[in-house]
Amino acid sequence: LEGSEPQHEDAAACVLHDVFGFGSFRGAQREIVDRVVAGHDTVVLMPTGGGKSLCYQLPALVRPGVAVVVSPLIALMHDQVEALRLLGVRAAFWNSTSSAEESDAVRRDVRDGTIDLLYVAPERLLMPSFLRLLDDAAAGAGIALFAIDEAHCVSQWGHDFRPEYLRIAEVTARFPGVPRIALTATADALTRREIHERLRLDGAAEFVSSFDRPNIRYVVEEKSDARAQLLRFLEQGNDGGTFRGSAGIVYCQSRKRTDEISTFLRQKGFDAIAYHAGLPSEARSAAQQRFRRDEGVVVVATIAFGMGIDKPDVRFVAHVDLPKSLEGYYQETGRAGRDGEPAVAWMAYGLADVVQQRSFIRQSDGGPEHQRVDSMKLDAMLGYAEAATCRRRLLLAYFDEESGPCGNCDTCLEPPQLWDATVPAQKVLSAVVRTGQRFGAGHVIDVLLGKRTDKVASWEHDRLPTFGVGSDLPEREWRSVIRQLVARSVLSPDPGRMGALTITEAARPILDGVETVELRRLSAAPARNRSSS
Ligand code: ADP
Ligand code: ZN
């Protein structure tokens, strides 16, 4: 109703001030709240820390009836409800940890219309008893709205996939007049499309906030010795000094590696703890609590450590292995600097990471379509890792956001030198072809450098015309050339054959001399932790 709009606006401003204690809305909050209050379906894409909760909590208080909030994380649900109760809001959750008494109380309160926000796990939403409760609520005080938090859990391509999310639309379809608001901090185009499709939000307006996190500095290093490099990074810290005593997260690809690296950091005097999905749940929640409560805890984790971590003063997020996608990387690094103070996202990566990720994709049983999507995501990640221009710009472009060079990433602070590497690229490609596309980077480089190793001798590769043609460049530079050619899909490491390099179609024009190759030159001291002067 047009005529009732101004009243709603006033109500929203009052609730913002009186209940939440905020002086003004942030970013798109006002528009989003108004739309939801007016009863429209809405999709909200906002980075972590952007203020998503208010977008459904406030309308829940302005609209009559109970707001149903679907949330995948029980721990998070608990925290949200506690926080709301402290503000005097009538909030409750209903999940597998609820006792029979608690469940009865929730049911009674919903029927009596004395609850404003009810948090439920997705599996609960689908239970007949809950559906009956919803029917009762609709017939009574009404249902204010459905909020679907962490909406990216609907995406089968993401690692947070929750099958129950695919059925949420069935439930909300029973209540056609009730507005729905889906929220997430993941915003790549594919996930967005899936949210609209699978939650059946075709007509919903989409609000996309800037995903830029200007206080996070992005730095990538060539990996030679991950542990030593990590230690150097931690000791040197950011411009302001060492990260000793600062809270941070170190992401690893495997559980075993979290143990190794956390042990290593403890030996070096850091308060480090390992975290992965294979630990007993008590150990995991103990680690989370220590991270949240104590100062200067470094959690060395797999990607299992993440969703719902809302510690504001995380000063660094380090990746000692290459993540498999940019959206994962963005989410993980986004846990740094939520307080707005300077923070660093640091990563060490090397060719072995690419081989490993490709082999994960090959071994995954998701079928060819899944593998194709995963390969595309990995390619985007590699493009970032090998970037010669502003990393933030690349990252934001991935989320369809345009920006200029940021001045706060390694490539902005120390622009890499570019060089015409057409001839070296031709040498590499021809060495790969002449050795039969059967060998990894190490052997190909030995051939280029003219090293008479046993392997070279036994394959008689010292007789090839390419033997020794690369002695003009150091080994590290050759590694860098190969990595960049892999990142550009000119070369492809075959995970089924220990990373044997093969050429792709993109290699032809380079070999034929009709295409030039401009690459990033290694900086003088690549392993050094960069800091601005
Ligand atoms: P998200 O869920 O997007 O990660 P939250 O909803 O947890 O973010 O909000 C992040 C922080 O911002 C919280 O501490 C919240 O209280 C605060 N916040 C949200 N909206 C406002 C606002 N309009 N004014 C001031 N602080 C806000
Ligand atoms: Zn930059």
Kindly describe this structure:
The structure is a single chain. This protein is of the alpha/beta class. Helices cover 42% and strands 15% of the residues. The protein is built from 22 helices and 17 strands. The strands form four sheets. A seven-stranded parallel beta sheet has the order 3-4-2-5-6-1-7, sandwiched between helices. A hairpin with a 5-residue loop joins strand 15 and strand 16. The chain binds adenosine-5'-diphosphate and zinc ion.
Please state roughly what percent of the residues sit in beta strands, choosing from under 5%, 5-15%, 15-25%, 25-35%, 35-45% or over 45%.
15-25%
Helicity level? 40-55%
Gross geometry: elongated
Major beta sheet summary:
7 strands, parallel
Question: Please, what is the average pLDDT?
Answer: 90
User: Rg from C-alpha positions?
Assistant: 26 Å
Strand order of the largest sheet: 3-4-2-5-6-1-7
How many helices?
A: 22
Helix/strand/pairing category: alpha/beta
Kindly, what is the distance between the CA atoms of the first and last residues, rounded to a whole number of angstroms?
59 Å
What binds here, in terms of ligands, is: adenosine-5'-diphosphate, zinc ion
The number of distinct β-strands equals 17
Low-confidence stretches: 1-9, 525-533
Walk me through the topology.
Elements: H1 5-18, H2 29-37, E1 42-45, H3 53-62, E2 66-70, H4 74-86, E3 91-94, H5 100-112, E4 117-120, H6 122-125, H7 128-139, E5 143-148, H8 168-172, E6 180-184, H9 189-198, E7 205-208, E8 216-222, H10 226-236, E9 247-251, H11 255-267, E10 271-275, H12 281-293, E11 297-301, E12 314-319, H13 326-333, E13 343-349, H14 351-363, H15 367-385, H16 391-398, H17 410-413, E14 418-420, H18 422-434, H19 441-449, H20 454-458, H21 475-487, E15 491-494, E16 500-503, H22 508-511, E17 518-520
Parallel strand pairs: 1-6, 1-7, 2-4, 2-5, 3-4, 5-6, 8-13, 9-11, 9-12, 10-11, 12-13
Antiparallel strand pairs: 14-17, 15-16
Helix pairs in contact: 1-3, 2-3, 14-15, 15-16, 18-19, 19-21
The structure holds adenosine-5'-diphosphate and zinc ion.
